[in-house]
Specification:
Blueprint lengths: L4 H4 L8 H22 L1 H9 L16 E2 L2 H4 L10 E6 L10 E5 H19 L4 E5 L11 E3 H10 L2 E6 L9 H10 L6 E5 H15 L9 E5 L2 H6 L4 H12 L3 E6 L9 E3 L5 E2 L4 E6 L13 E7 L9 E13 L9 E8 L16
Parallel strand pairs: 1-14, 2-5, 4-6, 4-7, 7-8, 8-9
Antiparallel strand pairs: 2-3, 9-10, 10-11, 11-15, 12-13, 13-14, 14-15
Length: 359
Amino acid sequence: MFQFDEIASLPPFSLGERDKNSLFERAMADMTLFHFERCEDYRKIVRGLGFDTKSLRGVSDFPFLPVRLFKSHELLSVDRREVVKTMTSSGTTGQSVSKIFLDRETSSRQTKALARITSDFIGGHRLPMLVVDSSELLKDRKMFSARGAGILGFSMLGRDVTYALDGEMRLNLDAIEAFLDRHKGGNVLLFGFTFMIWEYFYKALAESGRRLPIDGGVLIHGGGWKKLQASAVDPASFAEALRSVCGVSRVHNYYGMVEQTGSIFMECEEGRLHCSIFSDVIVRRHMDFLPCPTGDEGLIQTISLLPWSYPGHSILTEDIGRVTGVDDCPCGRLGRTFAVKGRIARAEARGCGDTYEKR
């Protein structure tokens, strides 16, 4: 059976297409059979769709679950007593949310993969970290929203973790300035969700006329693009706006979801989202769900080698995108690259940063 240790120590963007396909074909076969045998609901779905788990070969042949299914079903492949953490997706008021159940081993794999992927972009040393959010979000350590899970996961990669916002989502300038004084002249890491950064960090600084001295800092952000796109804010203008108020030298967007925490897709210096050795994407046509050729738009399917406590290894999202290349990114990282265009019509808003409501 495929073992996570086979890839845990490999550079996260080191496998070319042939080697990665071989790995994923074997891993997907083992994971699909594992969940088929241990999760009754998953077994019923796979049988109902007419899949024969013993005859599947290519990665694109294996069954996938629609992401919305996690809102209506509690899917587990381990005994509930082994669950150490439950994560929920973000959703606006009145929406149902996904519940993702993690055992200790799956949670550990997610943390290791996240660290390996992120370190490839910011280096292996833990940087002083400024989280553009409120610590109030982390009160319940056993039940996390997508936002809380993201903050906790990335916080493990930093040191002297400081929160830039108070409980009312206002800039905590005293805490921010004290943090910057402690790390004057050094590199720092900023992390937050896209809309939260824009609404409660960038706008507050711009309106006050303040410019924070974070030149040389690195910003990692993701989620919550829906509202910004409605305001005609694209990734390039977002990055430039942040530089104008705090001087961060590098800005990396990432694509990810609570249903596959850990195996995020980071945006490189060339503006491409990258699949690591822990994950991959397939873009499928709307009419028959067959894989699209490179460059054609369709629904994004995400594959992850991390989820063993629940059958989340192959998920069809509600996002539209296209594959932009394989093993050919000018940044030098191997693997598939892709771009996300938006969400399908009438899909629920579920970006992590879109959902803050004042109490």
